[in-house]
Here is the input.
Amino acid sequence: MYPLIKNGSGVRPIAVGEVLRCLNSKLASSAVGHIAVEHLSPLQVGVGIKIGTEAIIHAVNILLGNVENRRNNVLIKVDLSNAFNRISRATIFHEVQNIFPLLFPWVEYCYSSSPLLFENETILSSAGVQQGV
Here is the structure.
């Protein structure tokens, strides 16, 4: 874990995942990608859809590039809170158990008890998820 100094005061711990955890997570995700698409489409195209996020970027660029569309459309990107750090693990466990039961043992293993060790200190991690995989 690497400590970064926050603006003002305090330390933001940045944990670096293990290679095997990342590899297992990618393999598990690819095994259930088609199920994710069934549950998340059409509202979310970043999971299980090849170049889904890239398609969104191109669509936004087309809308913003057309002068006539600028008068009739509004684009708002809002990030009111850091969802990765605030999401409830109990909710994640519940949803994974219901939608992706084959992934549940892995998700439970990764997030049930994940203390972060830094020098001589242990920081308990009880909320949020790791970004990326």
User: Anything to note?
Assistant: The chain has a mean pLDDT of 77. The chain has one domain: 2-123. DSSP finds seven helices and four strands in the chain.
